[in-house]
Amino acid sequence: MAFVELKAPPPPGNPVSEAVADLTAIAKGLGLTLRYFFTKPVTLQYPEERPSLPARHRGRHELERHENGLEKCVGCELCALACPAKAIFVQGAENPPEAPISIGERYAETYVVNMIRCIFCGFCVEACPTEALQLKRVFELADYSRESMIFTKEMLLAPRPKREREDSWLPG
Amino acid sequence: MAATAPPTTVTLTIDGQEVTVPRGTLVIEAARQIGIEIPVFCYHPKLSLVGACRMCSCEIQMPPPPGQQPRPPGILTACTTQVAPGMVVNTLGPQSTKHREAVIEFLLINHPLDCPVCDAGGECPLQDNSHAWGPKESRFEEHKRLARKGAPLSPLVVLDQERCIVCYRCTRFMAEVPGQAELDFFSRGFSSQLRTIDDQPMKSHFQGNIIDLCPCGALTSETYRFKARPHDLDHADSVCAQCPVGCNMIIDSRSNEVVRVRPRQNEAVNEIWLCDKGRFGQYYFSSKERIAQPHVRQDDQLRPASWSEAIGSAAVALQGVKGRYGGQAIGVIGGRNLTNEDCYALARFASEVLETPNVDHRTGARHTAANPLAEHGLDAFNSPFVDAEGAGAIMLLGTDVYEEMPVFWLRIRKGVKNGAKLIIANPRATEADRVAFHRLRHRPGAELAVLRGLLAALVESPPLEGPAAVEASPPAALEGTQPAQAPPPPTRDLSGLRDALGDASVEGAAEACGVTAETLRAAAATLAGARNPLIYVGARLAIRADAPGLAAALVNLATALGQRRAVSFFPEGANARGAALAGLVPGEGGLPAGEIIAQAAAGKIKALYLVGENVLATHPDAEQARQALANAEVVVVHELFPTETAALGATVVFPATSLGEKDGTLTNAEGRIQTVHYALRTESSARPDWRILSDLSGEMGASLGYAAAVEITRDLLADVPAYAPLADGAIPAEGVIVRQHGGEASDGTGTGGPNASWGAYVPIPEGPALAPPPGQEGLTLVTYGELLGDESTLQDVPEVLEMVPEPYVEVNRQDAARLGLTEGRLVRLRTARGGVERRLRVNGRCPVGVCYTPDNLGRPRVNMILDWAQPFPTVTLEPVREGVAAEALAEAGD
Amino acid sequence: MVMLSETQTESGRMILNMGPQHPSTHGVLRLLLELEGEEVVNCVPDIGFLHTGIEKTMESRNYHQAIVLTDRTDYLSPLTNNLSYILACEKLFGIEQDIPVRAHVIRVIMCELSRIGSHLIWLGTQALDLGASTVFLYCWREREQILSINEAVSGVRMMTSYFRIGGLSADVNRGDPKADNPADRLSFEDRVAEFVRIMPGRVDEYELLLSRNPIFMDRTRGVGTITKEDAVRYAFTGPCLRASGIPLDMRVAYPYCGYEQYDFDVPFSNEGDVYARYMVRLREMRESVKIIRQGLEKLRGLEGQPIRIDDPRIAFPKRDKIHTSMESLIHHFKLVSEGPVPPAGEAYAVVESPRGELGTYVFSDGSNKPHRVRFRGPGFYNLQGLPRLTNGRMVADVVACIGSIDIVLGEIDR
After folding, report:
1. Contact B116/A92, CB-based, under 8 Å?
2. Least CA distance to C312: which residue of chain B?
């Protein structure tokens, strides 16, 4: 560890050498930009090209299902309690034993995420005790009205197994 | 002599703090006094001690005997250990925390991983204590015990046996507080199971309380099941308006809908209990069946209308009647279940706008005096509820308090546990009879004769004089001293009573009421020998034709017992006391409610203004009420639900808001005024009753000018003399008891009082003979209201409706045998007015010659066959063949 | 004193409104410039246009939920904000000694990446304000790499909320070379190593473009000078203070997260002008790279170590345990629904954010929600000194001065 004093470059003594130094600096800079002119661009032609998002990406919510098609969500409301933006509303109900919807006594009768309020912090996923709630690599959530940003349970539920995934554009 | 008496307080050290508490205090309570909360599961201050859970174990060290080495601290349960001088308690010692950790680990071994689906999650003592004291994670790897899940104990309470931690709170509550041991644990240890007796559904009116008491999610509410988490709920402090006890409650709502109701602690009223109607019967606030907008009658049909149209047409119609016939031709009935603010606005509306003296809140009342004791200088209710705990004898006259004021029954029961002798005078057996000391099974309507008998028995052997003499037992003899023989105290001089009583004798009264003279004498002796005797009288007796006689006899009885304030009438309706105080009583020359209906039926009253009063179902003569509605030119109704009265007779129907949507105050039976806060926003166009009255008065040119309930509260407190102590407007959270009469004289003896006649015996006016003379064909019908009827406020809660029995009639086994009827038969009760069908119950609760049916159960109501002129009619029972349409049968019968 | 509503003073000087919607005020900052011709006689910063009530909102969230709000104060270096709050909370809970080393090392790496990212934005916009748009684009390119690292580790590029009271929300991401998704192939260590490999060369490029550029030098040297004494009086911290000759760095003065174990230099300059602040920040990027290299080295030796403290009353239990252990499920449920509950008390923790001393004061009343949270944001104090920088200079220099103090209005207004 050391304290290092920085000093600005001293001005050249005479106007000629100053002009030479200035021109050199500008030329070097232009040379750098010229060199980049011949390299591959680092930008992405979105939306034609799609970004590759990491597995941990926190995007759109999805309510997962078990392999037998039953919902993993039991309507415990922990996600709603964890949500710092109060964006989630869950209402539980008794799981009908003759036509079960989830595993267990309880299921989410209503499950609503207000995507305008959501800040995608992922606390809901952290809170979910049944691994039902996931944040997926879906980020294009813009829409034209506030109403359409209220995501209902039908919109959030993962499709039943053995069906084509709708967000199939995802790499992998 | 008293030098050896042990000190009454004990000083001990808890966590380094010294605390002095009364002898006999439990360590846990001593710790609580200095703000140290020791974790518990089984301990509850309202229940007996079991020391089942061991969670409260602390390191407790006693000072060594002189000259001995101190011994190491022991691990003792703070909930069963009483304080001792010099005791040193360490609640956080390493041994005790380790002990608690082990307790939690054992409890959780068999606890299912249910938190996400469990209703208790978030308000669960097991969670809280595990989080605070438990181990990091489980070491248990074997399979957990499997047991019954989601098993109903009754339509209202669900048991999850897997979650149960066997703390015995529920079984102790049922056995000790209401005294209905419907629950118990079967088997032991690992396989302990909570079961109802014979696996029958629980029937108690207090089962909801075990949900509150359960420290884990084993007992949950059927109506709240999976509806919310405690964190989602909005809370409003309110007061129950289902009966006159005025239990304090918290309304928990979510998304503007009631999801549950919890008791709010008020030691003076409901302690921490609620009855099941109070707890499960409040969902009607958010009922979809409520009237959403005003209706006016057009072409004999009610059609929806705007507020301005409805108010306009009501104003025009009422003005018309007033103009043509005068204010005397208008009758106003309502208010017994409204807030004080609504009552006060209605009273002002009646006197200032309608200018009618015909105002009353007591449906079916025959007397103008709302309080029959008023002329004797007493309030209708003269002692605080808590007094019942310390009474030496409690007499219940003409009331089934378990059905009428259930939470007050718990208080009476507490008094009985403390040694009170319960005397019950009732034509049929009630729940309270199970702990009664004397049961006076009198003939229906013969209450006055019972009282005469008791008075005559007192005259025969008067009680001892003076309050000290009543505590007859001499002071405990101290060792070595001979108790001085006290001279026998003089007996009380009852010559005034003998004069007032005339020539009545015990035998004569026994003859008249059907109770044996010995029973009457024994009951009188019990009353006479008791310290602080109390007499509670059912609400129905206050509006009966012989009410003045009953009141005089009761006052004489109380005076003879040396406790003039002993007598109290139950009010009929949650806020009947408040309505009476607010002025909803007949004015100068006004008619009581029963007469208003009778006069309307006779065509003399031309307009009826009914606020929350479904007279067709509540007036004790449905035919008369129907005629009244038909003959009245104008009927204005404020209602929550589309009732028969609104549908059949109303000219204008105003939708009113329910208690859950109102601010205001309520005054309970003992005269305690308490504040109600709104819990829900009104989603329909319904308005509070006071606002409707205020709007209507504006339209009628004499505006009451109220814009908020608090303005009315302010006026009410300033205007009504009884509320004068509260005129500054501050009502404390626990409420205040207000007195109309003799608030200043409370020396307990009842002698001395506000006026000269106080303490004197009064002549007992003879009332009309109410019961049919014996020896008639048929049975004498007795009706009462039960707690759970089939009123519209309960229709939204199927779980509660399951608790409501099928409409029934109860007869004695002998009568049933005589009539050839068996339990469960559908029978028709028949009077000259017609018949209603009821399911037959055969048991020993009714005496021979009497039958009983609840009057708030079954459609048509039993008042269909009642005659206002005859409160105890003779009915015949005839079997009905089932499977045949009722109408066809009715025609055949006619 | 200039009134905020005037357009002209009595002496006939013009009042120029700069902002709040102005590309060079770096956010919604409004400056009232009192001008005598081209010369700035007085400058009054008017703040509050981005006031979001974050401190107040935190009072109604539990200690855990409040983390997400810290991201949103200084949104250019969310991780340092996270850290300042988290350190204060850890002091409050009395667990600051128990945090696993691995968590600290990852925190240091993430914060230094954050510092580079923030400095890149400063450099890009400062250069852009002075006409050098090339540097702006190059800076964005490097910042993209840092954001990608943020995203791979925490799931989100900016509002990371990655740190937790007692450690981290999750360990750094593992790479899977066979993953279908290219973004999942690289591990955290690979990505960071790649970044620190190229970054020094990139800093060379910026220097090549700017350090000797005559226009840049003319616009920055001798402009916005503030003396050592004034900088102290205005409570400057961070690069602004160090560029005026006081080498105060919280990482050295009050080490946290084990900074005392890293070898790095604290650059300073005595010149106090815009160019000096430029030099200091560029050097800091190089020093950050040094720190990150050392951090990666340490991380290798801490493989498999825990990243959260093992206290069920404060930090979430392990994920797999909540499916099998009743105790863990209860702890999880209580922590989610109510959050951790500290004892009553107060704590103040300070970190060296890219802009200077970022302190967080947390007051606990013993409930699960903070009774009061207060940020000591460096930008607020640095902005106070702006009039001292601009007065007596030309209007055009105001832009250079604003850029050089590197403010983020989200943190100033909160």
Report:
1. no
2. B136
Judgement on whether residues B411 and B539 belong to the same structural domain of the protein: yes
**Domains identified in chain A, total number:** 1
Domain's final residue, options B286, B319, B350: B286
As a dihedral over the C-alpha atoms of residue C96, residue C98, residue C101, residue C103, rounded to 10 degrees, the angle is -70
Alpha helices in C168-317 (DSSP H): 188-210, 214-220, 228-233, 239-242, 250-253, 274-301
Q: How many interface pairs between B and C have CB atoms less than 8 angstroms apart?
A: 59
Pair (B876, B860) in one structural domain: yes
Domain, as residue range, for A101: 61-156
CB of B222 closer than 8 Å to CB of B155:
yes
- Could you say which of B117, B227, B232 has the minimum Cβ distance to residue A76? B117
Task: Look up the pTM and report it.
Answer: 0.88
At A171 the pLDDT is: 38
Average pLDDT, chain C: 89
B307 half-sphere exposure, CB direction, 13 A CA radius: 15
- Report the CATH number that the domain containing residue A144 is assigned in CATH: 3.30.70.3270
**Could you tell me if residue A71 is inside a domain?**
yes
Residues B265 and B193 in one domain: yes
The alpha carbon of residue A157 is apart from the nearest alpha carbon of chain C, in Å, by: 21
Categorize the per-residue pLDDT at B746 as very low, low, confident or very high, splitting at 50, 70 and 90: very low
Q: Which residue range(s) make up the domain with B632? A: 295-370+575-724
Do B704 and B592 have their domain in common? yes
CB atoms under 10 Å from CB of B349, counted, come to 25
Residue A1 included in any domain: no
Same domain flag for B405 and B548: yes
Q: ∠ CA(B163), CA(B168), CA(B171), 5° rounding?
A: 110
Using the 3D structure, point to which of B724, B754, B771 is the last residue of a domain. Answer: B724
In angstroms, the separation between the Cα of residue A161 and the nearest Cα of chain B is 25
Q: Are residues B526 and B583 in the same domain?
A: no
* Residues near B25 by beta carbon (within 8 Å), at least 6 away in sequence: B10, B82, B83
Separation between Cα atoms, residue C124 and residue C135, nearest integer Å = 6
The percentage of residues in chain B with a pLDDT greater than 90, rounded to a whole number, is 55
Reading the block at residue C193, the tokens are 């190593």
Q: Return d(Cα A116, Cα C86) in angstroms, integer.
A: 27
Q: How many CA atoms lie within 13 A of C72 on its CB side?
A: 19
Q: Which residues from chain A sit within 8 angstroms of residue B120, using beta carbons?
A: none
Full set of structural domains in chain C with CATH? 52-413 (1.10.645.10)
Chain C residues whose beta carbon lies within 8 Å of the beta carbon of residue A2:
265-266
B229 contacts on C by Cβ (under 8 Å) = 337
Chain A residues whose beta carbon lies within 8 Å of the beta carbon of residue B232: 77, 80
- Packing angle between helix B547-560 and helix B447-460, nearest 10 degrees? 20
| pLDDT tens per residue across span B785-810 | 889 888 888 888 888 889 898 999 99
Q: Looking at the complex, does the CB of residue A71 fall below 8 Å from at least one CB of chain B? A: no
Q: Whole-angstrom Cα distance, residue B414 to residue B419?
A: 9
Token pair 């606390």: residue: A123
Paired residues of A157 in beta bridges? A63
Q: Which two tokens stand for residue B464?
A: 């001892």
Best of A94, A107, A112, A133 to mutate (most B CBs within 10 Å, chain B): A94
**Does residue A110 lie in a domain region?**
yes
ipTM at complex level: 0.85
Asked if residue B652 is part of any domain, the answer here is: yes
* Same domain, residue pair B176 and B235: yes
Give per-residue pLDDT as tens, B868-884: 878 888 888 888 887 65
Whether B120 is in a domain gets the answer no
Residue closest to A78 by CA, chosen among A36, A118, A130:
A130
Structure confidence at residue B744 as a pLDDT band (50, 70, 90): very low
Res B833: pLDDT: 85
Total domains, chain B: 5
Q: Is residue A137 part of a domain?
A: yes
